[in-house]
Amino acid sequence: MLSIIRRQGLRAAKGSLSLAAARTALPVPCLAMTARSYAAAASSSPIKSNISTTSSSLVSSTKDVVINGNRIIAGAVLSRQPLILRDLTPFEQEYFTYQKNLQRDNAAPFGAEFYFKKGSVAERRWKQQETERSGNATSASSKGKEASSQLEEELSEEDRVAALESKIAFNDRVTEADRKNDVRSLERALARTLYLIVKKPREQHAWQFPQGGVHVCENLQEAAGRELQEECGSNMDLWFVGRVPIGHYNYKVPNVAKTDSTSAPTGAKVFFMKAHIFSGQVKVDNKEIVDFAWVTKQEMKDYVAPEYYEAVKDMLSDF
Q1: pLDDT at 116 over 90
Q2: Among 87, 145, 199, 316, which is 20 to 30 Å from 128 by CA?
């Protein structure tokens, strides 16, 4: 009986010792892995975009990717979104006027005293507007002028000051950059989407989107962001919409650009990545890029080559 009790006690002691050893041994590699992960995250420098990183941050290579004789190129379709609502078309203006009049006609009638204090400036202005809306165009115009002159006579100095303070002043939809046709300014065509195109120092196909070859161990988003920084400077706050290209463009390498090497690419495939600019401005290096412009989809026809525009027009917004 004593021997059985001793054997059971020894088994229990061995089990507890092995469990304690496992508990003390396991946390060591886990803590070390966590410390390396946080250190790697903390060492990364802040960037002005949401570009995802791959192994290119660890492996540095300037060799371009060539697949099936085609050089892989990443382009950036950088846009400034509309800042104001676009102008209404004549049909839209008529539709909204009709809806406004229909809503007024079907509204529940209330007395004017329900909305305005008797004898107030607001009541007199409302009466003037009702007079202008009633009757035919000729009578309404004459009555409106009479009511306006009568209102001006009845208004006191205090009422005039209150009316001026309550008047809403709208900014001009046409900016100074529009008047000067400054295509380098982001303060133009506020109701339209503007796209960045750059000019390279050459005769043919000079204007295009910022683009360049994709390096080994580099994804398309990284390559597009790098080319933007190299060609247009780092003084821009950007946001890449996604990691998937919105379109592509194929072309053959001109004979003057080919070399005698058998491994030289015979063509190129350009994959375009969509991005938005929030602040900042382009600063060209006058080496790879000598000029730039922010243009609409329709204005782009006057800059880029016809075949290039046909390849990219479906990626651009009409407004």
Answers
A1: no
A2: 87
- N- to C-terminal Cα separation, the chain: 94
pLDDT by residue (tens digit) across 217-251?
A: 899 999 999 999 999 998 999 999 989 999 999 98
